[in-house]
Specification:
Layout: E1 6-11, E2 25-31, E3 37-44, H1 51-59, H2 61-71, E4 74-81, E5 101-102, H3 108-115, H4 128-135, E6 154-160, H5 180-183, H6 191-199, E7 208-214, H7 229-237, E8 242-244, H8 251-261, E9 267-269, E10 280-283, E11 286-287, E12 291-295, E13 298-302, E14 311-314, E15 319-322, E16 333-339
Parallel strand pairs: 3-4, 3-6, 6-7, 7-8
Antiparallel strand pairs: 1-2, 2-16, 4-5, 9-15, 10-11, 10-16, 12-13, 14-15
Length: about 350
């Protein structure tokens, strides 16, 4: 089932066009979280090229935590590395003492800023996806990481890396060079398998969010960063946020991540791919309007694509994004009414 939606299908009947295509109306209903608990796991690349990026995350932690502090949330913040080879600072073990930070810890912002700078001595085969699943499952979740993951809390996982994920679970052990992660990428654990594992971490009624600050598709002049496709795919699958690690400042992405981790989601994945000009969006039964746009010399009302204080639609992943003042408040009900693109497959299949 879609992790973010409770779906109400209005029906498959409607007007048939001349070519007998059936028009399907769809209503997706979402709920902004009312929980007051969030467990936030930062997964930090600790390979040789990551010193500046770690420092930038540390310096902008204030922007991240501001939204969480404002809501009075009961939070846990933990840090692990992408290193699955070292026994000292890797393999999914939470770093620091205490192993996770809470609102009650003295000067927890400074403590986070210190521990997020995990060093650059880690493996050059960054296995962030495997590290997170290891940290959050048995046996380690009940031993060295005990207490971090809580029933009833939103789980927010944030990856920071300038490389693609290399979760291979031993498939590349016969190769010495780091480039094996790219040269033999077909031997890596399939993303779809990892999605199923991440789905199983939390009960159905609890929410899991995955976000990433990684290399974009085009990374020229970006200090050797490469596209983080596998992390991006996980973020897309779990309705998270993807930021560009090549940006000179992380202020914007850290603020957005904090807003999302606070339970205030700004993106929701539709069940089907929508005919874009049929989309209608409601928050607590109040329509969220679009704006006047020009089309072929004629002015018409488009109910979408207001990226200032409205919403936009990502046709690649069938995601509705809210912007600015239009981000739904806590405990809000969000409804999206639309026509399904004929022949499109459900995103929950």
């Amino acid at each position: 089932m879609n992790r973010l939606a409770v779906v109400a299908l209005l029906g498959t009947t409607g007007c048939k066009s001349d070519n007998e295509v059936v028009r399907r109306s769809q209503l997706d209903t979402f709920y902004q979280s009312a929980t007051d608990m969030v467990d936030i796991l930062w997964v930090i690349d600790n390979s040789l090229s990551m010193s500046d990026e770690q420092a930038e995350v540390a310096s902008k932690f204030g922007e991240f935590i501001e939204s969480i502090e404002a809501t009075g949330l009961d939070f846990h913040v933990g840090v692990i590395t992408t290193d699955m080879e070292s026994t000292e600072i890797g393999r999914g073990q939470l770093l620091g003492d205490p192993t996770y930070l809470t609102r009650d810890d003295d000067d927890y912002i400074a403590a986070f800023q210190d521990r997020i700078q995990v060093g650059i001595q880690g493996s050059d085969r960054e296995k962030g996806l495997d590290a997170a699943i290891t940290a959050l499952t048995e046996p380690i979740v009940s031993s060295s990481n005990a207490g971090f993951l809580r029933d009833g809390a939103v789980l927010s996982i944030i990856f920071v890396s300038d490389e693609n994920d290399c979760t291979d679970r031993g498939a590349l052990d016969g190769y010495d060079e780091a480039t094996a992660c790219y040269e033999y990428s077909e031997d890596l654990v399939p993303i779809f398998d990892l999605i199923e594992e991440y789905d199983a971490i939390k009960p159905d009624e609890d929410r899991t969010l995955i976000s990433a600050i990684v290399g974009p598709e085009i990374t020229e002049n970006c200090g050797g960063a490469v596209p983080g496709f596998r992390y991006q795919t996980m973020a897309d699958a779990f309705g998270g946020i993807t930021g560009n690690i090549c940006q000179s400042s992380f202020s914007d992405i850290m603020e957005r991540l904090g807003l999302q981790a606070s339970g205030m989601l700004s993106s929701f994945q539709l069940t089907y791919f929508a005919v874009e000009d049929t989309l209608e969006v409601y928050i607590n039964d109040t329509s969220v309007p679009g704006e006047q746009v020009e089309l072929d010399g004629e002015t018409w009302v488009q109910i979408s694509e207001d990226t200032t204080n409205g919403w936009s639609y990502d046709e690649t992943y069938a995601l509705i994004y809210f912007h600015g003042d239009a981000v739904p408040p806590r405990e809000a009900t969000i409804k999206v009414d639309y026509e399904v693109i004929p022949g499109s497959l459900s995103n929950i299949d």
